[in-house]
Specification:
- With about 450 residues, the chain is an alpha+beta fold.
- Among the domains are: about 5-105, no CATH class; about 215-220 and about 305-449, Jelly Rolls (Sandwich).
- It is about 15% helix and about 30% strand.
- The protein has seven helices and 23 strands.
- The chain has helices at about 5-10, 15-25, 45, 50-60, 85-95, 175-190, 190-200, and strands spanning about 120-125, 130, 140-145, 150-160, 165-175, 200-205, 205-210, 220, 245, 255, 260-265, 270-275, 285, 290-295, 300, 305-310, 320-330, 335-340, 345-355, 360-365, 380-385, 390-400, 425-435.
- The two termini are about 40 Å apart.
- The model is unreliable at about 1-5, about 180-185 and about 445-449 (pLDDT under 50).
- The structure holds heme C (HEC).
- Heme C (HEC) binds next to helix 4.
């Protein structure tokens, strides 16, 4: 009934019975009580008042929020609507948003308030944090020991805010014990690392780059040009990059691809980074937690992640289109499983282009209208084979003009920094090593390059 769009749209009246399955599947995931959307859409009564707004939001493609250009890549978490579904919603509203026969309604989905990953094997929480009203938003860091005495493998991780009214976004990183030690000793005898430290200002738990730091907008002049000098990931570290999970608007929990797991070395700490919003103007308390599920057997493959960043860009005041790039050549065969562009309020668009060793070029992902409020991880329908020697270029644009509705201050010179009013230019990449004879789940034979 649902997808036979053209004939049924002409033949008879379209009612809520026809559109409910579309709303359940594509909207209710956020539009249910206690989730991020302001209203629920689980029955006719609560959906009807929004009918006109729903029509507008799907015609303009504002909802469901999905930002990837459909010309490039296919994504397992693509929740965007087909044209026939948009047409059905439009017809329903144009014909008076009627209920139809409720006996014909399919059952509404049930959303539990429990963990989305299922019951976690372990939960790690920050100590209760009190937020006082007034003043700017807070960026807090909390370190929570895992007390793991041996390496553990994690197949799923979910970062859950304790108080959704104040947790704007949050990340949890794994700090391996040996890494915690090595940083200090390195700096003492390495002038480059010392310079790198000088370049970063750390104040009130926030970091930003010194205004007098060199300016490099085109990070592709040389590979990894824009890493902090001395902070470039060493080969041993590459892919074991620290972030485990994030809580961001529009982002689902981290469930690593079948047969893969992330490693948490013995003695690691979890480091939580949380942006608290003071919008409620009341005292608030938060206890944010990460829930994890362990692998029952050693993984066939390690789920890896690397973050490529340009730290040295400079965005002049008022400029509507500042290009900032970053490049990296991969030194092994791998399967990329997801891509996440990350910028702040002035982020405008982002493109991930690869050049294969034979010179062929391909766009893996293009997000033409980046929006800080929708930080989506684009998960590939099939892991993408990337041969050794492939060069990835991330090309982003920033809009620092007064025409950008999210722009906090178009008069400002903007450089790298952790606060939302400062900028970041990152591409987060999840991948698996391509091992001889091992095909990742979901990978069909012809998909290998
Ligand atoms: C990933 C979560 C998510 C999904 C999926 C989603 N929404 Fe929303 N929606 C939100 C949030 C959050 C808001 C409030 C903030 C905003 O307007 O951006 C919202 C706001 C809206 C509004 C008010 C818009 C306005 O202009 O103020 C409408 C209407 C709406 N959604 C309809 C839909 C419909 C229809 C679908 C499915 C086809 C859908 N949404 C899917 C999260 C979602």
């Amino acid at each position: 009934m649902l997808f036979a769009a053209a004939p049924f749209l002409c033949a008879r009246e379209v009612t809520y019975v026809d559109v409910a399955p579309i709303l359940y599947k594509h909207c209710a995931g956020c539009h249910h009580p206690n989730d991020i959307a302001p209203m629920a859409m689980l029955d006719y009564r609560e959906t009807r008042p929004w009918a006109t707004a729903i029509r507008e939001s799907v015609l303009s493609k504002k909802m469901p929020p999905w930002k990837a250009d459909p010309r490039y890549g296919t994504w397992s978490n693509d929740w965007s609507l087909r044209d026939s579904e948009i047409a059905a919603i439009k017809a329903w509203v144009d014909q008076g948003s009627k209920e139809g026969d409720p006996k014909l309604l399919p059952p509404a989905p049930v959303f539990s308030t429990e963990w989305k990953i299922g019951k976690p094997d372990a939960v790690f929480s920050i100590p209760p944090h009190t937020l006082t009203p007034g003043g700017p938003d807070e960026y807090e860091q909390f370190t929570v020991p895992t007390n793991f005495t041996e390496d553990r493998w994690v197949i799923a991780a979910e970062l859950r805010p304790g108080n959704r009214k104040i947790v704007h976004h949050a990340h949890v990183f794994v700090n391996a014990a040996e890494k915690q030690k090595s940083v200090k000793t390195d700096t003492a005898k390495d002038p480059q690392a010392e310079y790198a430290q000088w370049l970063v200002v750390n104040e009130n738990k926030l970091s930003w780059i010194r205004p007098e730091a060199p300016v490099i907008d085109d990070g592709c002049v040389v590979d990894d040009n824009s890493y902090w000098p001395g902070k470039k990931p060493r080969d041993a570290e590459f892919g074991n990059w620290g972030m485990l999970s994030s809580y961001l608007p529009g982002r689902e929990p981290d469930i690593f691809p079948e047969g893969t797991a992330r490693k948490i070395p013995a003695g690691s700490n979890f480091s939580f980074q949380i942006h608290y919003s003071k919008a409620t103007k009341k005292p608030e308390i938060d206890v944010t937690s990460v829930g994890i599920i362990f692998a029952t057997e050693p993984p066939k493959q390690i789920a890896k992640r690397v973050d490529l960043s340009n730290f040295f860009f400079l965005i002049p005041p008022g400029n509507p289109n500042v290009e900032v790039t970053e490049c990296h050549t991969f030194k092994q065969d791998m399967y990329v499983t997801s891509l996440t562009p990350h910028m702040h309020l002035r982020g405008k668009d982002a493109r991930f282009d690869v050049t294969y060793p034979d010179g062929r070029k391909e766009t893996l992902l293009f997000v033409p209208h980046y929006n800080f409020n929708w930080q989506i991880t684009y998960r590939m329908s099939e892991p993408k084979f990337i041969p050794n020697g492939t060069r990835l270029a991330i090309i982003s644009h920033f809009d620092n003009s007064p025409n950008n509705p999210l722009n906090p201050n178009p008069a400002e010179v903007v450089r790298w920094g952790g606060a939302s009013e400062m900028e970041m230019m990152d591409g987060w990449i999840e991948y698996l090593d391509a091992l001889p004879g091992v095909m990742p789940a979901g990978q069909s034979a012809q998909a290998r390059f």
